[in-house]
Amino acid sequence: MIDAMFGKRTSSENCSEAAARDLTRGRRGLLIWGVPIAILLLGSYLPERYLVVLWPIVLTFMGVVCLVNARGCGRVHCYFTGPFFLVMAGLALLYGLGLIPLGPHGWNILGLILLVGGIGFTCGPELLLGQYRRLRRSP
């Protein structure tokens, strides 16, 4: 079933083509991922009232870019991290608005979930399924 969803690992020729479209590589990757991660880290020094806006916006951006990258180059972990970041954006918004009770350390809890989940969903799928999936291109 997993092979049906993600295809087999790509050949080296297809892999280099996919890598050329991969938004996680090079300077572009540093800007797309480094800036949002830096914003999240620096946001920990802001009053909590700003986090309710900052976290959902940054995590939504990261989730959407992951899904765009998954569709564009077939990067396997992006199929997992995209939805994960979008769910985390929703949880951050709900907690910030006081709609879910996570206690006085809720932002720390969300940060820990984000850290562990982000690492797990980035590394795990690619260890099991390879770095890129085979994309079916229209003729």
The overall strand count is 0
Category from helices, strands and their pairing? mainly alpha
Report the total helices.
6
Q: State the distance separating the first and last CA atoms.
A: 26 Å
**Total domains:** 1
Computed Rg: 17 Å
Molecular structure report:
The chain has 139 residues and is mainly alpha-helical. The chain has one domain. The protein is built from six helices and no strands. The longest helix has 26 residues. About 4% of the residues have low confidence.
List its traits.
139 residues
Summarize the structure.
This protein has 139 residues and is mostly helical.
Set out the fold topology.
Elements lengths: L1 H5 L5 H10 L4 H18 L4 H26 L4 H19 L9 H24 L10
